[in-house]
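wait is this the right file?? whatever heres the structure
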């Protein structure tokens, strides 16, 4: 894909390359196991999900999963499902490199913008997003169907 001072950005095109990113992804998606992560990414690919990683010394140090969507409310957009930098690589430019690539990919696909959701407790992530020019544009509501009695 591309190489720079921050590392080499690569698209993760198969189960083996996705599995190699697990040590980074598990820091964000603690509810998953390595096998469930690989299986879910495989299933999500059918829905347009793509994954990239920033490699340093051929080892993933940051990961992003995303898809291109069209929505009535927002038009065509790049939605970031997952964005995480290994805790040992934070503040080294890895996250900035991923975000810059994602913004470029959104532009290459004619998107009107980039969007993501972030847990309310992730204050450091929010500071990072604000620093990239993002803003809080909506509230995200969720309902677990197994708990819903309506």
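ok assuming it is, sequence goes like this
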């Amino acid at each position: 894909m591309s190489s720079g001072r921050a590392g080499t950005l690569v698209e993760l095109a198969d189960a083996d390359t996705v599995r190699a990113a697990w040590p980074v992804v598990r820091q964000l998606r603690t509810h998953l196991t390595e096998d469930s992560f690989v299986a879910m990414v495989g299933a999500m690919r059918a829905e347009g999900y793509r994954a990239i990683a920033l490699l340093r010394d051929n080892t993933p140090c940051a990961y992003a999963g995303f898809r291109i969507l069209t929505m009535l409310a927002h038009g065509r957009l790049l939605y970031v499902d997952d964005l995480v930098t290994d805790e040992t690589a934070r503040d080294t430019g890895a996250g900035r490199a991923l975000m810059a690539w994602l913004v470029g990919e959104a532009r290459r696909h004619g998107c009107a913008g980039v969007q993501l959701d972030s847990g309310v407790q992730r204050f450091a992530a929010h500071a990072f997003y604000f620093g990239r020019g993002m803003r809080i544009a909506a509230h995200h509501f969720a309902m677990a169907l197994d708990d819903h009695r309506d």
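The two ends are 48 Å apart (CA to CA). so i think its the right one actually
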